[in-house]
Structures
1.
Amino acid sequence: PKSPTNKKVSNSRRDSIYDYKSEAAKKVELIAKNRDERRQRQADEKAQKDLIMHLEQNNPYWEFSQMIRDFRNGIDFRPLREHDPVVENQITVCVRKRPLNDKEDRRKEVDVITVNTKNQLIVHEPKHKVDLTKYLENQNFRFDYVFDDSCSNDIVYKFTAKPLVKTIFEGGMATCFAYGQTGSGKTHTMGGEFRGKQQNFRNGIYGLVAVDVFKLLNHQKYAQKNYMVSASFFEIYGKLVFDLLAKKQRLRVLEDGKQQVQVVGLTEKIVSKVEDVIDLIQKGSMERTSGQTSANSNSSRSHAVFQIILRKSGSKHVDGKFSLIDLAGNERGADTNKSNRQTRIEGADINKSLLALKECIRALGRKGAHLPFRGSKLTQVLRDSFIGEKSRTCMIALISPGNFSVDHSLNTLRYADRVKELIATDSPED
Ligand code: ADP
Ligand code: MG
């Protein structure tokens, strides 16, 4: 008689035969799999070797690039966002990093600047040990704000010059400086974005300030003050001053007995709408670059000063002034041992003016500090902007991201750091 137990046995026997076959099949499969994996591994290793060879031939910085990528993968990013709070400082110092440009891309340069938070950045300096192994020297910096390469002029403006516009309506002086190496983005930031050789003067800091000046002029809070707006635009080239609104006419700077500094004969055009200001910016910018042999030969060696002035109608007294300065390339300050005498003198002048500027800004933050404004033509003509408790200033330090520029970028960051010493921390919230 069939019992349920018997059935079970026969079933299990069938299973075990089946298992036996499958064990053999599995072994064969495993051998095949191991062989495939080994081949794949060898192929991968070869591909990796080929890739490394290819990279070494095509990109000498690939290892640094890899190290920077690893670094970035290991940290949290909390960049500045448009609606982050704007802090009201007497002195604001910030940094803007531009994207790598075509020229840097063609040279296969590596982006050595990491902007990790709204106010900090890291410079990855490529270095070699004595045995030639490569390593990165990472340095942290902290400023009031750090703008990464995705920020537009509008965002930069919002956190830098915009909060200073009301200052000039309240009896104060305002200044905004663009500092950095030639090609780092000073003119792009101050004058407007370039599209090829065309510049959009509407989205530079000069133009954006003009828009807000006219907005406040008509604001009920200030309308009864009857302010009249005018603008001037000049260039400081060594010890010489040229009027950019009068065919680069040379101007003299005089200081009277009361230490009042005057640029004699400087053109000051009355403006009644934004459009008038844009026309002046365009005119002056063209004048600045006219007659240049290459894109940045002369303008990189001069400081351009654009000013918007407020006066009561019919009065000579200046009630408020906003000076916007596109500084000479700071690398020119290092041209002090060039064989060409002219270049050497220019370099020394630029160096002197940038050092004097730094000291004047630092003095602004310390009541009663000595103001070394006679140290250069630049600080001399800006003297009245460095005095008075209501004066405010903003420095935008511009940096190029490529590894070829790392020394210049470090110089720029150290300078900006000295203008306003903030302590870099590891905590992104500080
Ligand atoms: P500088 O005045 O400091 O010598 P420029 O403002 O002339 O430098 O900039 C050099 C080049 O880099 C220009 O072609 C400019 O359009 C480009 N550039 C600068 N900053 C930026 C940016 N933030 N985004 C895109 N391009 C930029
Ligand atoms: Mg420029």
2.
Amino acid sequence: MTRRPLFPARVEPFAAPPNAPKKVANSAGGTPATGRNGLNIATAARAQGVGLDSAAVRERMVRRLAEQGIAHPELLAAMAAVERHRFVDSALVNQAYEDTSLPIGLGQTISKPSVVARMIELLLQGVDGAQRKTGRLLEVGTGCGYQAALLSRLAREVYSIERLRGLHEKARANLRPFRLPNLHLLFGDGMQGFAQGAPYASIIAAAGGSSIPQPWIDQLAVGGRIVAPIEGGGQQTLIVIDKLEQGVRRSVLETVHFVPLKSGVA
Ligand code: SAH
């Protein structure tokens, strides 16, 4: 059933660096919509928002997250910096900064920004609620790589594992331009964790199973935290596991909707 992750490969930088950060290509296609062809103002603004000045659109997204209670300054800065529109298909670029989950292929989805932010904030809080930068981190479910890009700004080392080869390759391509030397993309079954990177200060899962796999608890450092969805009674809830000297403490939070955690690779 399980195959060992093949390699803790670093994301190799492009030989030539991509465009300067602010000059985002108009991935919606064509020249910017500046009123030509009778485009209405809202359409033009949206097209420009992701085509020319995506930083402003992200700032608006971050303001909404802050209004919803996300307070961790480095997390908000990461959400403002990482270009979510680079991780979705060009047809979905206009929705990239809306608070909505989006398909990323092979039946999987990228979570909506408010859920991504909520889970990362929980992860960074630690047992005593103190905000911290996390040490080694394991992400189960790389998907398109968006959350991995955020995490690489918030943790010392990030190991991100994906069981679908197609998405692992997609994430690799999506992340290459970001040149993130502390992010290691792995192809394998994340239900086994990734023992070579352990012990982890933090483990985060973007897919929900019926229980927390034992390898995650084994590979978590004392003082470490897991944030993951768990399936039960026909619904999923967000779970926080803290590994303490005295044992494991489990907190059950709100209802969530994630794709299923599956074993093996495909
Ligand atoms: N964080 C991702 C979200 C991806 S959706 C992003 O930012 O895009 C969840 C992902 O978990 C899917 O890609 C799915 O294939 C993957 N997944 C499910 N079970 C897994 C497992 N056992 N090991 C690794 N990845 C798994």
3.
Amino acid sequence: MAVTLLKSPLLILENFIGGEFIPCNKHIDSFEPSTGEVYCKVPDSGPQEVEAAVEAAKKAFPEWSSRSPEQRAQILNKLADLLEEQLLEFAQAESRDQGKTVTFAKNVDIPRSAYNFRYFASSVLHHTTDCSQMDHLGCLNYTIRCPVGVAGLISPWNLPLYLLTWKIAPAIATGNTVVAKPSEMTSVTAWMMCKLMQKAGVPPGVVNMVFGTGPRAGDALVAHPDVPLISFTGSTLTAQIITERCAPYCKKLSLELGGKNPAIIFADADLDKCIETTVRSSFSNQGEICLCTSRIYVERSIYQTFMEEFVAAARKWKTGVPSDPSNSNGALISKEHLAKVRSFVELARSEGGTVHCGEGVDPLHLPAANANGYFMPVTVISGLSDSSAVMQEEIFGPVTCVSTFDTEEEAVAKGNGVRYGLAATVWSQDVGKVHRMAKRLQAGLVWTNCWLVRDLNLPFGGMKNSGVGREGGKDSYHFFTEVKSVTIKY
Ligand code: NAD
């Protein structure tokens, strides 16, 4: 991997195919969100590059899949070690590429990426399969699990390396080979990781990285007949296209999609903890986490107190230059995304909503070098109807809306009143109430009195328009393997 800085200060990325860095003759501009400047050129790969990557992955499959889980686990652990050794370098690169703060990348993205390798290196050693007896017929039945083949992995821009490694680690731990396509907006850390793949001894062709846009590189991967499995994380709209493209081939599909996640706050909640966590759950990573809270329903009797304290706490969540450790948020991913997020705030205003802080209320004071960056202050809105697009659609930015409820029944109805069903948060000290809510809320993940506490042993995924299938722990093992039932007549 030559970090190509020749003649230009731009970083020029290359595809990683068959264990080698392969230059591409066409590129896409990649912008640095905190300055608005082009700083990197990403390969604009298409069917030809995808074909080469799939061929390399097919060639590597027989040898890699025949290794023992222990042998594969050793390499995954080595990758984790190497990532941890370069934690700061990776965190700085992720911040520059995505706009998030270095602190967030250092504490969340990169450690979790390393942990993804470590977790699956360990978990793949501990799965068991099923066995049943049919003595009356003289038969013993059992199941075996085999890797599927070449896995196509497509990831989004919000948690670039974190979500990419969440797919690569279980895919290769279970013996598959991989063609991955990271988001064209955030490809740098994936490209940096390819160098670590070489160092860790990942055999050529086991992990191939093809960079480019969704409609060209992504589509070529999804529609490739020799890629029987697609794991996709991204928007619901793209998932609908991918599902159609996969249908003729009956591919195995896992879809991790958008959310419009409610926080339901009962009057008996521990308000201090709740406010600190709900500010974090609404605005972490600029609100660009699929699990972020974007609708807050507060029991009417504590609404005034909640609003005063919540808005005051939100105002302390500072937005600014990503390398400054005193900032909690950096810049949004792109100019277009910033415009989209702002348009929701405008819509809220036009519908009579109150903007308590943030966009249009609290100006940001940025250094001149960042004047064209895609920054937006954290914004709290109230007074919207439940049917407003602002309350219904995923905004995926530092915007959260607050409303009220009077009864448990109403809280459930409001929480469930959108097409998404990814995550929900419930705040109450009544143990019965939190169990009832957890059961009735339509969400793949329900956190009570906390947020984003993740146990990787548990299934991760969404209901309704938030996804199809689950990954994590046993679910990843099941998704990335095919099960066979075997009957032995004795
Ligand atoms: P996106 O759907 O635009 O893109 C995601 C990936 O798909 C990118 O790599 C993109 O290049 C690729 N892609 C786009 N069109 C494609 C096509 N036609 N064929 C194949 N690939 C294609 O999503 P995004 O804007 O990058 O990410 C934000 C979305 O991701 C939000 O909706 C967010 O909620 C969701 N998300 C979900 C989870 C989860 O785990 N549920 C996690 C993170 C993000």
